[in-house]
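Before relying on records like the one below, remember that each one covers exactly one chain. Contacts with other chains, cofactors or solvent are not represented anywhere in the record.
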Amino acid sequence: MTDTRQAPVHALLTDGTTVRIRRADPGDRDAVLRLYEEMSPENLRLRFFVASEISARQSADRAADARRPDYCALVAEQDGRLVGLAEYDALPKSPQAEVGLAVADEWHHRGVATLLLEHLADAARGAGITAFSARALAENHEVLRVFTDLGLRVTRQFDGPEAYCLVELFEDETYLSAVDARGRVADVVSLRPLLRPRSVVVIGAGRKPGSVGRAILRNISTGSFTGRVFAVHPKVSSICGVHAYPSVSVLPQVPELAVVTVPAPLVPQVAEECGAAGVGALLVVSAGLDTHQASALKGACRRYGMRLAGPNCLGLANTEDGIHLDATFAARHPGAGTAGVAVQSGGVGIALLDGLARLGIGVSSFVSLGDKYDVSGNDMLQWWEGDGRTALALLHLESFGNPRAFSRTARRVARTMPVLTVDAGRSEAGRRAADLHTSAAATRTMTRQALFTQAGITATRTIGELLDTAALLHSQPLPAGTRVAVVSNSGGTGVLAADACADAGLVVPPLPAALVDELDTLLPDGATATNPVDVTAAVSEEQLRACVNRLAKHGAVDAVLVTLVPTAVAVATGDDLVRALTHDPGPLPRPVVAVLPAQAARVELLEALGDGTVPAYSDAQAAARALAHAADRARWLAQLPGSVAELKDVETERARALVDSFLDENADGGWLDPRTTAALLGCYGIPQIPWAWARDEDEAVAAAERLAGPDGRVVMKAHWPGLLHKSEQHAVHLDLQNASQVRAAHRDLVTRFGGRMTGVVIQPLAERGTELFAGVVQDEVFGPLVVFGLGGTATELLADHAGRLAPLTDLDVHDLITSPRCAPLLFGYRGGPTADLEILEQLLHRLSRLACDLPQLAEADLNPVLAGRHGVSALDVRVRLMPRHAHDPYLRRLR
């Protein structure tokens, strides 16, 4: 059962209007009937094929009947009025359902029917329905277009005056892209009153100079805002030169944006007054709202269709021509520019605004998201994508409301502009897992990094590193790779710069002999033209320029890092070595960065001849990290979008039946027994080593005789519910060679574990190979994460794992296999066995599908997975299930 069937949700129409979508109930009969009664005769005829009052009453009765399990009706309402209805009626003994639509006459062409159909399709999928069928008059072009434009696979047939549509409900990339496009249009329109208001009112600006509201009002008034500005104050007529009114309701015009700075207890009342007056959006700076106040604020915004930024935030700003809005309480107005900035922390926001202004990059728009009740980083990415000004997106997000929707948006936006973030809250990375299972191995840090990596987001560790990287991406072309030429006028600083490059994962390669000879002719005597290139203190401005230009234009390297220290020689000759980097007549094809240890600022953008700039860093480590981030972005952009593997031999329905059966008997969930685990993995073709379940000593001996390999040796493992660490519990006997040893081992386990033990697992002794770890964990926020890395008893100690969010594409699987430090072991390291990579890739794809099909899968641990020349098989598997409902992360809805 989906969220739609459980509770109402709010979503945006194409014109930015907020509607409430919920399941119809018996009390809706009169409202549904009124919907039909207010239709024109022509629209009523198109709906029922005849303009029939009887059909309208029957439809109203049907929609109000919430007891039928094979029927579902959803309604859309706005401000208490029902404006649309979508319903399906399941066909007997069929996975199909007949669907019907109705929209109020004046609400046509606003996306009501399409939005309802998206939510109805989600409800139908949860009920096992795979397709909608619909009949319509062939002349009803509007409803036929609604079905065709959904993005789902539609088959149409015409029979005289009627048309028959079959809509397959399978979600593929075409459908998700169509949903993205519709959501983007609606989102951007809804944000206009917030980010491009033509009038603003500040509510709560006090008479005291130190009040936040007064500071915001002053910034709006002095920031060249082009629209009208009002203030609301119950006792004064003017604040900061702005006319004040006692309430929103008596303003001379309805403002598009209200900035709320009143104490927390008053916020809900102010929001209600703004909504009733017709205000388009709220910026709530006030902090400290309790649960009741927060609920009332969100309720008012949804009821009146106001978008909300905040609460507990610094404010927002838009520097574009015709707006010039600074509704923040920052000390200085933000400089106009091309960086879009969205932060949850006001302090981080101030630091980024100041840093971007100092660099000369400036901001296009800035939003402090605060507690993020509504407007999020996802909204801002969509705004920047189409605002025509933003070329660089900077984010600071402490939480994610819908990470999968954010990932899709970020992945799309990152193709057109760099998206950078500060990876906040990494302290979990320093902890070592105390338990050897996937939920312990998969830290929140790993999950966030998987999100950033897959979406093409550049994740930095600090605000300073974020600004370092932004400066390079703003000013220089991307490097095609990681090869860096280091140039210095001091050998020691050149060595330090080369070390910094190595630390950042860059390469300082030897230069080709021909290039070395060429540089020797350009540089003074005593220079070293290998890499690093030591041009010596005797280098002139022209010689340095020629050297850097030649390196930047040669294909032997992908970037040039020039580190310079001031010398008396340059002063004596009048040479300005820094000017050698900024006075080239034309742009260079590869990035050039400067390291100036004597520079006071951490990073500056040096004005170059023409329109360009060159980033200059005070430390080589900062320059190298920025170059590494740029190289990572170039590599991500060069990759074609990955594809999810099609697995035809998967038994999804059987797997769901196994899960449902287990949860029926174990309402709180738990770890599966070995037999159920094997059956579940068998549904997805996940290979396990042969095994047998034995309840007593005699069954163990019989199983050992049946499973023993050519050398006759087997392994015995004890089992009881909840046993996770067999080795630590000494619950494993290895290398059992005959029946007497099997009996002795079984008696030992019974003696030590007694009634706890429910049986033993017998397996043949495995051949040699690389022991790996593969698993899945369902994150409550991020969804399923597939984890891969070094396995066996060392997996906890070394913590050599990588993670990617499911569903995995072929690129994700490649990254998973190659990212851990143990990856060389799979490729025949030092003569070792080469793993069957194709089968290993299949294993990860199948784990991904398992996780996506079964939201009840809390975690699955395959450890060890033995990878060798002859295949891949899991030697030990644990699976834990928890009761959990499916949730479509891409369904359009507001937070």
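The radius of gyration is 32 Å.
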